[in-house]
Amino acid sequence: MKNLTIGFVGLGLIGGSIAKGIRYNFPEFKIVAYNRSEAARNAAKLDGTADIICADIDNSFSECDYIFLCTPVEYNVEYLRMLKPIIKSSCIISDVGSTKTNIHEAVTSEHMEANFIGGHPMAGSEKTGYENASEHLIENAFFAITPTSLTTPESLAEFKEIVSGIGGIPVVLDYAEHDYCVAAISHLPHLVAASLVNLVKDSDSPSETMKLLAAGGFKDITRIASSSPEMWQQICTTNGKNISDLLGDYITSLTDIKNAIDNNESSYIFDLFTSSRAYRNSFSDIHTGPIPPVYKLYCDIIDKSGAILAVATILSTKDISIKNIGIINNREREAGVLEIVFYNKTDLENASLLLKEHNYKIY
Questions:
Q1: SS3 at position 144
Q2: What dotted CATH number matches 178-252?
Q3: Which H helix or E strand runs over 66?
Q4: 149: left (phi over 0), alpha (psi -120 to 50) or beta
Q5: How far apart are CA 127 and CA 131, in angstroms?
Q6: Can you say how many angstroms the Cα of residue 243 is from the centroid of all Cα atoms in its chain?
Q7: Of 358, 356, 352, 350, which is closest to residue 318 (Cα–Cα)?
Q8: R_g over Cα of the chain
Q9: At the N or C end, where does the chain have fewer CB atoms within 10 A?
Q10: pLDDT digit string (tens) for 33-51?
Q11: Domain ranges in the chain?
């Protein structure tokens, strides 16, 4: 590829990771970066990610071939309008928002269709901020690309090459189709998880017995309820129609299930789980979505003094870092009594082999 100048508005987890990915994979590119927080933009300059840092949206962005808008979805539109009088005629602006309709409508109203290609990397982490950004975050993650009616084949091809170059898997979609898809597979599940957690909270006894007994199944399907309230507030307001339509379908489905239970229609319940099991089992286990994977194993240990220390010592001898470790009090779905969580897949695999060599039973 020719040498390009890439601009960034926002250096949080996603913006910082794309910037670092470009610096790592395209070291000849020039990077111009703005971030509201001085600490993040100074860090990007200090670690060599950014060549030029800006305290404001200024003429430094006039030389950019591409600019990534990496702020919360409702703010991206504001920055789009700020950049309009600054950019050169050939510049392509993209974004990383999880909803696309609002930014595409703004692009149309501003007559900037020839200068915009929407984007949404399906990647993320439970951690936020530039300090947690990584040049490898986008690797092997689907990267939705939503061109406009005026996007040229040449511009789309080059943008896909940049995405592929930082390890992403480009998937070209119509922006309306994108928003409907993510409403079903991401936005609605977050709402369901949040409402289910609140249902248990409101239904629990003063002694919090439900919370005490909450185990694998409940924790697995509600993990995403811990997401940022501010981010999900904006997502729900910018993709409300799709979410509302699918939520209505889901409420109808739940009503049908309730009626089947009330009427003791066992065949309906059996078919429900048969159908969902078959479809769920057809999913790939390879992580490509926005919800980060959890690298953990379960281990049987004897309940005696020093048992956990012994396991931790074995792992430390091989420099395997433990993210979390603890005894499982409710083993509804877990076979082992000790749960160990790791930072990455490599540590998980090495730990499993090492503990097996020491005659521990691993699940």
A1: strand
A2: 1.10.3660.10
A3: strand 66-69
A4: alpha
A5: 9
A6: 18
A7: 350
A8: 24
A9: N
A10: 999 999 999 999 999 999 9
A11: 5-173, 178-252, 295-362
Superfamily of domain 5-173: NAD(P)-binding Rossmann-like Domain (3.40.50.720)
Task: Give the residue among 69, 118, 101 at the shortest CA–CA distance from 179.
Answer: 101
The CA angle 338-355-361, to the nearest 5 degrees, is 60
Quote the distance between the C-alpha of residue 128 and its chain's center: 11
Question: How are beta strands 30-34 and 52-54 bridged, if at all?
Answer: parallel
Read off the pLDDT of residues 94-117 as tens digits, 9 standing for 90 and up. Answer: 999 989 999 999 999 999 999 999
What is the rounded distance in angstroms from the CA atom of residue 101 to the CA atom of residue 161? 24
Which residue has tokens 């185990």?
A: 215
CATH number of 295-362: 3.30.70
- Reading the block at residue 351, the tokens are 């730990």
Phi, psi of 342 (to 5 degrees): -115, 170
* Cα 208 to Cα 194: distance, rounded to the nearest angstrom: 18
Angle at alpha carbon of residue 41, lines to 39 and 44, rounded to 5°: 110
